[in-house]
Amino acid sequence: MRTVSTDTITQSFIDYMGEDTDERTRVVLCSLVKHLHNFARETELTHDEWRKGLELLFAAGSISSPERNEFVLFSDVLGMSSLVDMMHSSAEATPSSVLGPFHVLGAPELAVGGDMRGDNDGEAVVVSGKVLSTDGSMIKGATLEIWQTAENGLYSGQDAAQPEYNLRARMKSATDGRYLFSTVRPAPYTVPEDGPVGELLRATGRQPWRPSHLHFIVSAPGHKTLVTEVFPSDDPYLDKDAVFGVRERLIMEYKPDTNHENLPDELAIKSKLADESFFTVNFDFILKTTSN
Ligand code: BEZ
Ligand code: FE
Fold it and tell me: How does the average pLDDT of the chain come out, rounded?
């Protein structure tokens, strides 16, 4: 089209696409551009405002590195990561939630009943549960990757004072699907605020905190891998998570206890807990079979 106007530009974009464009690419891009053009028309977007948006994207690229992806963080705080996640989540399985940027491969293997807290300060927590399939069976040998913050709200990798794999582990569920480990209570923390995402949060009067959580990736043959996180019911940030990761079914109760005799014998640090109070947490993971 030679003469383009504000009314015809969207159709021109669609018409410019080649005939052999992949069908899904056509659908997604046409929809994206329709929404972008309508957004500009609806808000009567000015040059300065559009330039500001482009500057934010440029700043996101400049601050990103292999260790830090500001675009993912934008996706998180805009709710896109969680929306796409929820759209593809199955009702029978445990809900998934954001992966976040702090997962690393290669965490040490921990036997069922093992201790992940090591020398970390903080309140002791004993976490247990089962890995189940949506077909109702217990899953033996499922892999659980677990990671969390230390008491200072930082992950190993963000904090030079922590050993490389501090508060990270990989566990295989027992023959009856059980998993069990001891750790410290994770702390709430803020998403990185020193880049354009921080600027967006401040400009919109938003707080940067995430409620404390334990991250899990649970995988087993024949099942869809579950990337999720679980939150304590008493966390002050549950209703304002900066990245919209909280789901009702991912909230669990940290139950205070003082009697270590109530703990399973399999727990490696059971006798150490004779002298301190601790919390117990029980949470089952349900994985969706890939066959249905
Ligand atoms: C996290 O849970 O580790 C996380 C998720 C999204 C943004 C920042 C951190
Ligand atoms: Fe996290």
Answer: 95
